[in-house]
Amino acid sequence: MTCHNCEQSHWFWKKIGRCQRCMDQLTVLSVLCWIVWWFLCRDNPKSIESIALIFAGFAFNTLLALHLWMRFVILPWRKRSGKK
């Protein structure tokens, strides 16, 4: 699932927020996860399938939020302040 840029960089913080392909994949996975949950599992939210989809959806959303935070807040701030 990783792209060539992410395969070459070995540390998590060097990857996050820099790869558009990874952010696109997270967006698609997040949307698909919540759509599947809405149509298949919302009637029985205490089933194991529903709980698994909820956890997966929150994990995708959290990782996407971290990518976007780094992309649009941290990296531009570092660039303006002259840090690496």
Keywords:
84 residues; mainly alpha; 0% strand; elongated
What does it look like?
The chain is mainly alpha-helical. The protein has one domain (18-82). Helices cover 77% and strands 0% of the residues. It has helices at 4-8, 12-15, 20-41, 48-81. The longest helix is centred in the C-terminal third of the chain and has 34 residues, at 48-81. The chain is elongated, with a radius of gyration of 16 Å. The mean pLDDT is 86. The chain crosses the membrane at residues 22-40, 52-74. This is DUF3624 domain-containing protein.
What sort of overall outline do the alpha carbons produce when their principal axes are compared? elongated
Largest sheet: none
Structural class comes to mainly alpha
The radius of gyration computed from the alpha-carbon positions, rounded to a whole number of angstroms, is 16 Å
The number of E-state strands comes to: 0
Task: Extract low-pLDDT stretches.
Answer: none
Number of helices: 4
The SSE order reads HHHH
Whole-number tally of structural domains: 1
Short summary of the structure?
The chain is mainly α. It contains four helices and no strands.
Map the helices and strands.
Layout: H1 4-8, H2 12-15, H3 20-41, H4 48-81
Helix pairs in contact: 3-4
Protein name: DUF3624 domain-containing protein
Pfam families: DUF3624
InterPro entries: DUF3624
